[in-house]
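Study both lines:
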Amino acid sequence: MLRSLVALAAAAALSSSLCAAAPADPPPADPHATDPRAALVKLLPAGSKLEDLKPSPIPGIYEFTQGAEVSYITSDGKYYLDGSVYDMATRANLTEVLRSRARLGLISAVPESDMVIFSPKNPLYTITVFTDVDCQYCRKLHSDMQELNRLGVRVRYMFYPRTGPNTESWRKAEVVWCSADRNDALTRAKAGAQLDMNKTCPTPVAREYELGQNIGLRGTPGIVTESGDFISGYMPPKELLQAIKQLQVAQR
């Protein structure tokens, strides 16, 4: 009996020493620590994330995407490239494909209930137009609305007051949105009619202005097609329709 107790005590002591000597499990590895993008993201604008960097078609170069803006950085962080990459075999603008995809994703996230829409009965094409109530060429485009609708073009307006927050153009956009008939209010505003500037309500103006900045808008009207292609500035209705058709063919 005594021998059994001694044996059990010895076994317990051995087990205890083995447990004490066993190394603790290593902490889980940080997946970002070995990611080559971790060093690069520190060189980019504040708020940039690892997910904003992806390998480009060119070895040793990453594509950097923020909103619909696409640029490139070398894997050693020495060079930053701002421009387009073309596939020389197909002559395709690979960068513009990325931009179009990003624009489409950003705009698709906006419900049509946050837009002012002018549509024919049976639309053939839809464009999304970032507009400024006081922009001369935005007004010119709007004066073509009847013809655009006749040609089968459906126009979805989002607000982009170029002068920014706390300006008269911004306030006009908010007043249009707060009107009982937004389509009529926008038409009158673009014609220079006096608006009831006392109208207030929650509006999507700030969100749409930020969206315009995210897609790289530099002026108005800024027109985005159903495939995410961008058309800058005013075009007469038939020329605009032709541009839309050509961009659709290019996407096939």
Summary: Residues 1-22 have pLDDT under 50 and may be disordered.
